[in-house]
């Protein structure tokens, strides 16, 4: 708590209230509200174009909403100066984007090692830990390949390893199993859920796959840029 408020264990870790966000003339979010508690795994579902990725980007402090608030651990993310916001993103958040997330010039191993090096680890230590994380997500023998040489599924698993390697408090994952068959999806979800449960990491998981959403504690559904509860899934 940086604002001097007493910590409230019942308060959500991350809360968005009445978010609106337009991309040009498209109103991607129209009053979306959502809460994520410490250690909670929340699935966000909804039709294509319903605003899921836009919501994730606002919650993760990557995009500022036009109106509404995003509160993380007692601080208004939407009002935080850019420098503090990017620092907070680096220390507390891990993000798996829906598209094009790995750095094409770096090997799979170095993509995963990079956040650790940015946080001050030596290259050798970072690579050792990155290798363990790639193994955990079933990317073995591909450490030296560049993203263009990985399959879609291997790239997604590498991106997940990269999002988790620094031990973030919240992981945002936008369709992390979108390029995987059902067996590989199951392996990735099992690894993600075990890791999150072990470390008490909260996960905001966007998926259109009901089997993937079933790993979550709770599911909310976006329709036309607003959230309606869809009941408890686990
Ligand atoms: N950068 C952008 N420029 C213009 N329009 C955008 C942009 N990003 C999103 N949109 C529009 O905003 C709406 C919501 O997009 P968003 O990507 O949030 O949907 P989504 O629910 O993630 O969809 P999908 O399931 O297909 O990934 C869509 O109508 C989309 O076309
Ligand atoms: Mg999307």
TrEMBL record:
<dbReference type="Pfam" id="PF00005">
    <property type="entry name" value="ABC_tran"/>
</dbReference>
<protein>
    <submittedName>
        <fullName>ABC transporter ATP-binding protein</fullName>
    </submittedName>
</protein>
<dbReference type="InterPro" id="IPR017911">
    <property type="entry name" value="MacB-like_ATP-bd"/>
</dbReference>
<keyword id="KW-0813">Transport</keyword>
<dbReference type="InterPro" id="IPR003593">
    <property type="entry name" value="AAA+_ATPase"/>
</dbReference>
<keyword id="KW-0067">ATP-binding</keyword>
<dbReference type="InterPro" id="IPR027417">
    <property type="entry name" value="P-loop_NTPase"/>
</dbReference>
<dbReference type="GO" id="GO:0005524">
    <property type="term" value="F:ATP binding"/>
</dbReference>
<dbReference type="InterPro" id="IPR003439">
    <property type="entry name" value="ABC_transporter-like_ATP-bd"/>
</dbReference>
<keyword id="KW-0547">Nucleotide-binding</keyword>
<dbReference type="InterPro" id="IPR015854">
    <property type="entry name" value="ABC_transpr_LolD-like"/>
</dbReference>
<feature type="domain" description="ABC transporter">
    <location>
        <begin position="14"/>
        <end position="234"/>
    </location>
</feature>
């Amino acid at each position: 708590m940086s604002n001097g408020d007493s910590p409230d264990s019942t308060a959500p870790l991350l809360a968005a209230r009445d978010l609106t966000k337009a991309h040009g003339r498209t109103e991607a979010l129209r009053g979306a509200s959502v809460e994520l508690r410490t250690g909670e795994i929340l699935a966000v579902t909804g039709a294509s174009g319903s605003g899921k990725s836009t919501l994730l980007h606002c919650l993760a402090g990557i995009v500022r909403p036009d109106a509404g608030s995003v509160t993380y651990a007692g601080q208004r993310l939407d009002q935080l100066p850019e420098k503090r916001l990017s620092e907070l993103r680096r220390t507390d958040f891990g993000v798996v984007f829906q598209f094009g997330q790995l750095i094409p010039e770096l090997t799979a191993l170095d993509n995963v090692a990079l956040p650790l090096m940015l946080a001050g680890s030596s290259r050798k230590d970072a690579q050792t830990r990155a290798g363990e994380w790639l193994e955990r997500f079933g990317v073995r023998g591909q450490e030296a390949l560049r993203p263009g040489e990985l399959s879609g599924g291997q790239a997604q698993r590498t991106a997940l390893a990269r999002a988790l390697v620094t031990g973030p408090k919240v992981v945002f994952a936008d369709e992390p199993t979108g390029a995987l068959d059902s067996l590989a999806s199951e392996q990735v979800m099992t690894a993600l859920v075990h890791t999150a449960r072990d470390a008490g990491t909260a996960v905001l998981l966007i998926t259109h796959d009901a089997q993937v959403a079933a790993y979550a504690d709770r599911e909310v559904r976006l329709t036309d840029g607003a959230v309606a509860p869809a009941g408890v899934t686990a």
